[in-house]
Structure formats: C-alpha cells, structure tokens
C-alpha cells in the first residue's frame, strides 16, 4: 500500500502540472475547451467526467467522440487550432499518437495548449518493462502528457481513461469527488475489475474508496448473472458461467429454479430478475449451482464459487432495477451508445440526463444486443473464423459494423464461447466506410498473454515489417490499427510470425 501511495502522489503531482497548463491558458484567453475522446464505455465516461467538471466551473466546452485518433485527424486538428483558439484535451487516447501530436501541434504550429490523459502504452513502447524508454518519454512530454506507465502504474489494470479524467478533475476541484462513480463505470467498461470476485486494484481501488466515502456506491456480494434480465435467461445466456444442461436453455434453467421452491413468476407472469429475489433465495440458488457443478459436472466447488460470487457495484442515486443502478449494466448501456454511433447520447446520460437521453437509449441498447447476437451467430454458423498456425482471424464483411468488430473479438475471447479456440489470438477486420482500409481489432485471452503474447507489440512489428506507415497499439491483450486492403495478407502473415516468436522465441 505504501508503494501505491507513493505512485499515486507522483501521478497526482503530474496532473497538477497539466492542470496549470489549462489554468494559465484560460487566464490569458477567453475561450472554450475542445475535448476529444473515444467511443467505448471508458471513453464516453472520461468525456462525461471532463464535461461535467468544466460545466461546474462555467468553462465552455465541446466534446467530440472519435472512433480512433488517426494521423489524418491530428493533421486536421492542427490546421484548425489557431483559428479556433481552443485548449485541447485528449482522453482515452493520445499516448499512442504522442509523436504526431508533438510534431503537428508543437513543432509545426508552435501550439502547446493541450493535454493528453491516456492509459494506453505510449507510442513505440511494447511493454511496461521498457522502463527507461517510458521514463524518457515522460521527461520529454511531462508538461502536456500524463500516462500511468510513467509512474509504474499498469494502465491495463489499475486505472482507465475515465479514472485519469476523474483524478484530473479532482485536481481541478476537490468537489468533483462525486464523479468517481462514473470513473468506476468506465473501468468496468475496460474490464479492469480483475481482482478476486471482480474487485479493483491500484488507483481504481482509491477511486472506489472516494465513491464509497461520499455515499455513491454500495458494494454487494452477489451472483454473477445479469441483475436485470429474467433470471432463467440470465443463467442460460451467462457470458462467464458455463453450466452444461442449463447454459443455452432458458426453459430448463427455469425448471431448475422452480425445483428449489422459489416462486419465479410475478403477478404479471414475467419471470423475476436477480434484483427481485431475497438474500435467502439467492443463497438457495448459489448452493444449488455449486452442488450442480460439483456433483453433476465434477467441477471443484472452489472454482465454481470463484466465478459465481462477485462484487456488484450499485449506484445509490439511481433507480433500483434500472440499467443505471448496476455499474456493469450502466457500462453496457454506454458501450451500446458508442458502438451504434450515438456517443453524444451516452455522454449526456453519464453527465446526468435522466429524461430524453435515457429514454432514447433503451431502443439503442435493444438494437445493440440484437446486433451482437446476429454477428456472433453469423460468425459461428458460417465458419467465418479462419486459421493460421499461431493466429486466427475473421473478416466482418457487410454483417459486422466497423464500430463493433472489437466488441465481437472481445466476446469471442473473454466470454463463454465454447467453439472458440482461446489458445490463439483473434484478429477481427472490418472495412472502413469510404476508405480502402481495414480496421483491425486484436484480442488475446489472459492465459496466452501470461505465456508472452503482447498484441500491442505484435501489431506494431507487423506494421513495420509490412512497411505500413500507420499508428497501432494498445495493451498486451487488446490492440488495434488500420491497414490498406491490399496489404492484409502480408500483414496477417507477419502477425502470425510475430506471435510465434513471442511464444517460442524463434
């Protein structure tokens, strides 16, 4: 804990430096702030946190949601900055493009009124072990660039983009502590609750303590099923718990629940959700599932309990049973908004709109779930996943939207997809509209990341070997880039070779 405290103090002091950059600009210019953020749940949370904090300070702002921060985007921004005279904030991306920002904004335009708040590995850095190179980047960019890796903090696990934005706004004004719950939503969106029973580690745990201290979040031990779906469906279609005989069969799951003597139907004949059951009823279900798994499936009870019982983060100011009450469901809602090109709607909800925006989001969430199911079914029923010796890949064709190819890749790897080979990383490729390029989203299961797979490094090396002048990177288990269509075969083969080298050193 002492080590974490020291790292946090260094990190906090770095945020003070970039905060002063912003304050000095505002003192000299009567202008507004332009925020650029990513479209996923973490990016939308990050943008909402910044927007809410600036609104409270009566500072005009505009938020732009981007699919990715590309060279072309940075060039366009550099051409507009002097005419607009705005301070720029990049959040949930920017570290992977820091050289372009430095070159196009500072060196070419002599413009340094911007900051980067990002948790991804910096450009040209393959792993957190490259401490000397990371420290060198920190020294050269500290006036405008804050990244957790500069302080020995793992940005894939200990703090998200929303966590960075939250801590920055807390430096701006301590009263922004109430935005901590939005940072937790963002961290869940980036699957950073990877401690025992889905707890948080590192700075995320400090942010969680802030949210608890001001009475915004309750932490509850609960069953690891959706809290708002009919429980038989939640069990049958669980993404994380596989119970042969129940998984995939909502009717048999309902019969299983009824045999426990639990009244599952409400007066309107709808099936109860997890939220609507008593603690005694949940205990019965928990014991029955442990017995079912250990006796019928011969699974060690401790392994079942590890997945079955989790921490659930409940937002005390939200309506019980709504998509916003459970932080994980809130995160899913934001992700749906971003992936279906309604990022501004997601930001409005995260900033507090509980009327128009929230109502509109219900249809988006329903469409999102339908689209996910359609995409996964299409991939599997049509054998669209192709194999090389060390990687697997699929083309989205005209079925999977570009904005969802990363989500589909993640679902294949991280969720309960029995027919998917988790011993190889997956590369999803979707054609970008109006461009002769593919978006590439790569994912790897933690079991092979622990064996040495680093997708951020693999993608960068494959791009270099394919002689592609593109930006690429991310984290070891999740990374991406974009490549010309006519280079796809050579790129994938270089990925295949690079992954082989990571596993076997040759």
Describe the structure.
The structure is a single chain. This protein has 19 helices and 13 strands. The strands form three sheets. It has a six-stranded mixed β-sheet with strand order 8-9-10-11-13-12. It has a five-stranded parallel β-sheet with strand order 2-1-3-4-5. Strands 6-7 form a two-stranded antiparallel ribbon. It is 48% helix and 13% strand. The chain has helices at 2-28, 41-56, 71-84, 98-107, 131-141, 161-172, 180-189, 203-213, 231-236, 250-258, 279-296, 301-308, 327-339, 343-350, 356-381, 405-414, 446-449, 455-465, 488-504, and strands at 33-38, 61-66, 87-91, 114-117, 145-146, 217-223, 309-315, 386-387, 392-395, 426-431, 437-443, 472-475, 478-484. The protein has three domains: 2-215, Alpha-Beta Complex (inorganic pyrophosphatase (n-terminal core)); 223-315, no CATH class; 382-501, Diaminopimelate Epimerase, Chain A, domain 1 (Roll). The model has no long low-confidence stretch (mean pLDDT 92). Strand 1, helix 2 (41-56) and strand 2 form a beta-alpha-beta unit. By secondary structure, it is an alpha/beta fold.
Keywords:
506 residues; alpha/beta; inorganic pyrophosphatase (n-terminal core); Diaminopimelate Epimerase, Chain A, domain 1; 3 domains; six-stranded mixed β-sheet; five-stranded parallel β-sheet; 13 strands
Question: Any idea what the radius of gyration is?
Answer: 23 Å
Helix coverage percent: 40-55%
CATH structural architecture of the largest domain: Alpha-Beta Complex
Are there runs of 5+ residues with pLDDT below 50, and where? Answer: none
User: Could you tell me how far the N terminus lies from the C terminus, measured between alpha carbons in angstroms?
Assistant: 40 Å
Q: Please give the CATH class of the largest domain.
A: Alpha Beta
What portion of the residues fall into strands of 2 or more residues? 5-15%
Strand order of the largest sheet: 8-9-10-11-13-12
Give the class from helix and strand content and strand pairing.
alpha/beta
Number of helices: 19
Quantity of strands, as a count = 13
- Apparent shape: globular
The main β sheet shows up as: 6 strands, mixed
What's the structural domain tally? 3
Average pLDDT works out at 92
What is the CATH third-level topology name of the largest domain?
Answer: inorganic pyrophosphatase (n-terminal core)
């Amino acid at each position: 804990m002492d080590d974490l405290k020291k790292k946090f103090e260094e990190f906090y002091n770095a945020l003070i430096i970039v905060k002063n950059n912003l304050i000095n600009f505002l003192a000299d210019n009567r202008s507004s702030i332009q925020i650029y953020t990513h479209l996923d749940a973490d990016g939308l949370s990050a943008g909402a946190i910044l927007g809410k904090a600036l609104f409270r300070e009566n500072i005009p702002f505009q938020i732009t949601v981007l699919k990715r921060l590309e060279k072309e985007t940075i060039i366009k921004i550099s051409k507009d900055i002097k005419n607009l005279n705005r301070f720029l904030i990049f959040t949930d991306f920017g570290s992977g493009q820091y050289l372009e920002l430095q070159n196009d904004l500072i060196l070419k335009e002599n413009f340094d009124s911007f900051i980067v708040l990002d948790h991804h590995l910096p450009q040209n850095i393959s792993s957190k072990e490259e401490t000397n190179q990371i420290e060198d980047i920190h020294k050269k960019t500290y006036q405008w660039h804050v990244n957790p890796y500069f302080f020995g903090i793992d940005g894939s696990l200990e703090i998200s983009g929303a966590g960075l934005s939250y801590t920055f706004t807390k430096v701006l004004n301590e009263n922004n502590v109430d935005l901590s719950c939005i940072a937790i939503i963002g961290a869940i969106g980036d699957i950073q609750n990877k401690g025992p029973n889905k707890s948080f580690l590192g700075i995320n745990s400090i942010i969680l303590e802030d949210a608890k201290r001001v009475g915004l979040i309750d932490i509850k031990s609960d069953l690891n099923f959706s809290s708002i779906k009919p429980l038989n469906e939640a069990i049958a279609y669980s993404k994380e718990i596989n119970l042969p005989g129940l998984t995939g069969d909502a009717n048999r799951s309902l019969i299983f629940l009824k045999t426990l003597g639990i009244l599952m139907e409400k007066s309107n004949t709808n099936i109860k959700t997890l939220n609507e059951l008593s603690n005694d009823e949940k205990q019965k279900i928990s014991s029955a599932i442990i017995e079912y798994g250990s006796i019928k499936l011969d699974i060690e009870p401790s392994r079942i309990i590890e997945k079955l019982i989790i921490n659930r983060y409940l937002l005390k100011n939200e309506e019980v049973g709504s998509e916003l009450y459970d932080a994980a469901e809130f995160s899913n809602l934001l992700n749906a908004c971003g992936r279906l090109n309604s990022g501004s709607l997601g930001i409005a909800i995260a900033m507090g709109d509980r009327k128009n925006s929230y109502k509109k989001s219900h249809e988006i969430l329903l469409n999102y779930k339908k689209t996910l199911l359609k995409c996964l079914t299409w991939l599997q029923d049509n054998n669209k996943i192709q194999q090389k010796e060390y990687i697997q890949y699929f083309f989205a064709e005209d079925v999977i939207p570009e904005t969802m190819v990363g989500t589909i890749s993640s679902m294949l790897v991280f969720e309960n997809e029995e027919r998917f080979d988790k011993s190889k990383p997956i590369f999803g490729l979707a054609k970008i509209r109006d461009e002769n390029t593919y978006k590439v989203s790569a994912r790897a299961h933690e079991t092979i990341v622990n064996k040495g797979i680093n997708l951020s490094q693999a993608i960068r090396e494959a791009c270099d070997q394919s002689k592609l002048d593109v930006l690429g990177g991310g984290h070891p288990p999740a990374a991406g880039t974009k490549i010309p269509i006519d280079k796809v075969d050579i790129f994938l083969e270089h990925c295949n070779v690079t992954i082989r080298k990571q596993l076997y050193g040759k």
